[in-house]
Design brief:
elongated; about 250 residues; membrane; mainly alpha; transmembrane helix
């Protein structure tokens, strides 16, 4: 058997050092890396591109299309009889059709006004009667509400009588308050007369006053000095003090 005879691979062991040394040995051929492109990237322009200005305005040759609403009913046009039937037909979750009671009730302004005013009047009446029953000293004389349906005439007569008594009570209280105020004024006037205060003042101190009363007592002028050696005010020409200016003759 010659030395150059090759041994078939299936006769060799599948694992062993013989295969490891062969796989671990580096290949002598260098690996060449090929890029996708060999061209160098183009440089970015330093200045932005400027478009050429047109000589004049060139409008488009075809204008935009006009928008048209799509047809609401793609089917054939309805006849007048069918349109009249649609007006009186009841659709779910829609307003009631014309000619029905609900349509008249919803679209009638007069009945809505009566309902609103009636509700407000009822609430105001309930508040008035409730407040009157709580604050009125004649509350024990008021008839119960059940008598309104049993004896309505006597019910309203009793209420009217209670209102008259309440009005008389309020009138007496007001007259008593006014009498007390008048007595207070008379007592003050008698006190002024007893202490001699009514000579300088008129009724309530609202009468007109002279210039001397408004100015008050005069301060002597000349060589006199004020407190702590302060010099007195300079004498005005003529030896008289100018009058105080009054606005509208009052102050």
């Amino acid at each position: 058997m010659s030395l150059t005879t090759a041994i078939p691979r299936f006769l060799l062991p599948q694992r062993g050092l013989i295969w490891r040394t062969r796989l671990a040995a580096p290949s002598a051929t260098p690996l060449n890396v090929r890029h996708a492109s060999k061209k160098t990237p183009a440089k970015k322009p330093s200045k932005p591109l400027v478009l050429e200005k047109p000589a004049k305005f060139n409008p488009p040759s075809h204008p935009a299309r006009l928008r048209k609403d799509p047809p609401r009913y793609p089917g054939p046009q309805l006849s007048p009889a069918e349109q009249a039937i649609q007006k009186t037909k009841k659709y779910p979750n829609m307003m009631p059709p014309e000619g029905t009671f609900l349509h008249w009730f919803i679209n009638n302004r007069a009945i809505h006004m009566y309902i609103a005013l009636g509700t407000l009047f009822t609430l105001a009446s309930v508040v008035f009667f409730t407040n009157f029953q709580r604050t009125n000293p004649f509350a024990d004389m008021m008839p119960p509400w059940t008598h309104f349906f049993i004896h309505p005439i006597s019910f309203w007569q009793t209420w009217i009588e209670i209102l008259r008594l309440n009005t008389a009570r309020m009138t007496a209280e007001t007259q008593e308050k006014r009498t007390q105020k008048v007595e207070d004024v008379q007592k003050r006037a008698e006190y002024r007369k007893a202490h001699g205060l009514d000579k300088d003042e008129g009724f309530g101190g609202w009468t007109a006053k002279t210039d001397k009363e408004l100015i008050g007592p005069a301060i002597p002028l000349g060589d006199a000095t004020g407190k702590e050696g302060e010099p007195a005010e300079e004498q005005v020409a003529g030896g008289k003090k100018p009058p105080v200016r009054k606005w509208l003759g009052i102050w």
